[in-house]
TrEMBL record:
It comes from the Bacteria. Residues 128-178 form the RNA polymerase sigma factor 70 region 4 type domain. This is RNA polymerase sigma-70 factor (ECF subfamily). Belongs to the sigma-70 factor family. ECF subfamily.
């Protein structure tokens, strides 16, 4: 255990200096010490395990990319809290914007705001989408239907199917890749409507 973490007992101030010089083992130790705190804070703000995991990655990637200036940070704990809060709020704002766009585009189609050509394409795309979804592997199809057609969150689908959230994420990523390949020439607005996560 100690061989795997040679800097386990190094003071944080010294650890930051080593990280600033590009010491990857020091960075690994920094990650091990703080990843749980960043994750817990992220999930408290976003209420999503998947988003929290991505925020942890983003926070520490940013630290590594800006490692040369890390020695100038007086209170690393406070810096992490601030960075985590900023990343979380950015994620929440993007999700809110995405949700608003979905509602606006859907209302446009339903209310007749879209022109007749778009409405025809929308109806045709729905039929094509169903055909493509039917060609997906059984579990991937089920995951897609639970997420998109029933509106379940990744965590809820994972619990329902007794699989990990990561597996759900992978299934959705591959399913959407397959669908996009069939719809790559379709009108951009309709693509958003058909592929937007609910």
């Amino acid at each position: 255990m100690y061989a795997e973490r040679p800097y386990k007992n190094v003071l944080e101030s010294e650890l930051l200096i080593k990280v600033s010089t590009g010491d990857q083992k020091a960075f690994t130790e920094l990650f091990e010490r703080h990843q749980t705190l960043v994750y817990d804070f992220s999930i408290k703000l976003t209420r999503s395990k998947i988003q929290a995991e991505e925020i942890v990655q983003n926070v520490f990637i940013r630290i590594w990319l800006n490692r040369a200036t890390i020695v100038n940070i007086e209170n690393f704990g406070a810096y992490l809290n601030r960075a985590t809060r900023n990343h979380s709020y950015t994620v929440l704002k993007k999700l809110a914007a995405q949700s608003n766009r979905e509602v606006e585009l859907t209302e446009q189609v339903v209310s007749g705001g879209a022109n007749a050509e778009h409405l025809v394409l929308y109806n045709d795309s729905a039929k094509i989408l169903k055909t493509v979804v039917d060609t997906l592997p059984p579990q991937r199809k089920l995951v897609y239907e639970l997420c998109h057609e029933q509106g379940l969150k990744y965590e809820e689908v994972a619990a329902k199917l007794n699989i990990s959230s990561g597996t759900v994420h992978t299934h959705m990523k591959l399913a959407l890749k397959t669908i996009r390949a069939h719809f790559k020439h379709m009108d951009a607005m309709l693509l958003v409507i058909m592929l937007m996560k609910r």
